[in-house]
Design goal:
The chain is α+β, with helices and mostly antiparallel strands and about 500 residues long. It has 21 helices and 16 strands. Strands 2-1-6-5-4-3 form a six-stranded antiparallel beta sheet. A hairpin with a 7-residue loop joins strand 4 and strand 5. It is rod-shaped, with a radius of gyration of 54 Å.
């Protein structure tokens, strides 16, 4: 009997040595524990995962190990003695992938994150003979996950993460909460299709197919339903990622609502502009920035020029010959190309039927459908220009021969022709007696020679008096001086001139 026991002990020692040789070079940490709670052996990887170099530093018993290392779960909850993985191994419990944070006794912050599983080696009678604790150092992985978690939560861009196995949301950042108004806890209790992040997506079928396959979902526009019953225009994209060894999908969003509101406001503004443009009584046209082409014209433009929109738009104005001369066209185009607005420029406009009219043109740069354009405004001033020319010609004719026209009409015409006589501040009191006599004879229609004979003075003296009169009352012609005098009630016939000589007819 003693011989058999000795042989078994030798065999067990040999088996243990072989076991140690097998596991010594493993990357995983392995700790062998006797059922009596003594730690039999630990490989180099296990020692390194605890920051020690020898079994003495690790602890030779379960109690010593527990005293030297403090363990807690990832939620910062400290493990009770009975919950230590090494205690659970000793109790014969089989478990896998228990994740704990490990700190050296006396230190607050953990140094490592271990993922632990157990293994029980039994004898021929199925009794526990050796207990094994297998450890993986997953510190780097969890540090990366922590960095990702911090970055995910701090990122202002809205984002959510769902598990691919059940499509349930497992993470949501503040950006998504702020954008949608959904409470975080509400989102985490739902699936992708409960809070449909692909609602009204422009490529919804493709997105659903990619989601089912765990493949990248390209960017696309979608409408997110909000808790208040409204919706929000977004760009959504999906990127497959792993979290805790679980395949997941990261959805990121860009809020397009500000852009949509701006586009809506711009569209409404442009619609109001186009309604005003179409109904305006002034001839209006919209042209290219260089001034060479017109893009649209209103009804008043067609009525003025005879050109319908189909006749003139998208055709070079040089071919249309809207302006009377090429020089005038080049001048206008150069002004526009230089970025200088035109204000009330008098031009000659050539109508569709070949008639040339006088007009006034103004331009203003505008933005229309995100394009830089020029707004043209035109007015027909032919009637006004004709009236002005006719009036000037009539006055000129009257001034040449007033013998048949009554004095009152002649005076009114003279005032129109030379309005400066009306505005002078000089009165009759400023004139000398002799100047009054000369002015009176001017009003009677006498020339310088006749005045000289009437007053019995030299012609040179008369010319000097006339020059002083002109200077004082601000005129430069005889009819203007006569009009000035009559406007002030000075009638030459009523002036008594002493020593007057009769002038031969």
């Amino acid at each position: 009997m003693a011989t058999r026991t000795a042989l078994k002990s030798l065999r067990d020692s040999a088996d243990l040595m072989h076991l140690r040789q097998i596991i010594a070079g493993l990357d995983e940490g392995v700790i062998l524990i006797d059922p009596d709670q003594s730690i039999l052996w630990a490989n180099t990887a296990a020692l390194g995962m605890h920051g020690v170099e020898s079994m003495a530093e690790l602890g030779e018993t379960v109690d010593e190990y527990r005293d030297r290392f403090q363990l807690r779960y990832r939620n910062n909850h400290r493990l009770d003695n009975a919950d230590y993985p090494i205690e659970r191994v000793v109790s014969g419990e089989a478990f896998s992938e228990v994740v704990v944070e490990v700190a050296v006794a006396g230190e607050e912050e953990p140094r490592w994150v271990h993922q632990v599983r157990s293994l029980v080696l039994t004898d021929d009678h199925d009794e526990p003979e050796c207990l094994v604790m297998i450890i993986q150092d997953v510190s780097a992985r969890f540090e990366a996950e922590d960095r990702f978690e911090q970055s995910f939560n701090a990122n202002p861009a809205p984002a959510v993460i769902c598990r691919l196995c059940d499509l349930r949301f497992v993470k949501v950042n503040q950006g998504f909460v702020d954008m949608t108004g959904h409470a975080r806890e509400v989102v985490l209790a739902r699936t992708v299709y409960d809070i449909d992040v692909l609602e009204r997506a422009e490529q919804r079928d493709l997105a659903k197919e990619r989601l089912a396959e765990g493949r990248t979902i390209p960017q696309m526009e979608a409408e997110l339903a909000l808790p208040d019953g409204t919706s929000k225009l977004v760009i959504v994209a999906g990127q497959p990622i792993d979290m805790g060894n679980q395949p997941c999908m990261l959805f990121t969003f860009a809020d397009l609502e500000p852009r949509r509101k701006a586009e809506t406001a711009l569209r409404q503004s442009e619609e109001r502009f186009m309604r005003t443009f179409s109904l305006a009584p002034v001839a209006l046209a919209i042209g290219t920035l260089d001034g060479h082409r017109l893009c649209d014209v209103n009804a008043a433009f067609t009525e003025l020029t005879g050109y319908a929109a189909s006749d003139i738009t998208d055709t070079p104005l040089g071919d249309v010959e809207l302006w009377e001369t090429a020089a005038q066209r080049h001048e206008l185009e150069d002004e526009i190309a230089a970025g200088r607005p035109i204000r009330d420029r008098e031009v000659r406009i050539k109508l569709k039927d070949g008639t040339v009219i006088d007009g006034i043109v103004s331009t203003e740069p505008i933005m229309l459908e995100n394009e830089k354009c020029v707004l043209w405004a035109m007015r027909d001033i032919t009637t006004r220009k004709t009236s002005e020319r006719e009036l000037v010609n009539a006055i000129e004719a009257v001034m040449q021969d007033t013998s048949w026209l009554s004095r009152s009409i002649m005076e009114k015409l003279a005032r129109i022709r030379t309005p400066q006589a009306e505005t002078t501040g000089v009165g009759l009191g400023e004139l000398t007696q002799r100047e009054r006599e000369v002015l009176a004879l001017i009003c009677r229609g006498l020339d310088d020679k006749s005045i000289a004979r009437t007053l019995d003075v030299s012609a040179n003296t008369v010319r000097n008096h006339v020059a002083r009169i002109y200077s004082k009352i601000g005129v430069n012609r005889r009819n203007a001086a006569a009009a000035w005098a009559r406007a002030r009630g000075f009638d030459g016939d009523s002036v008594v001139i002493p020593n007057i000589k009769e002038v031969a007819a």
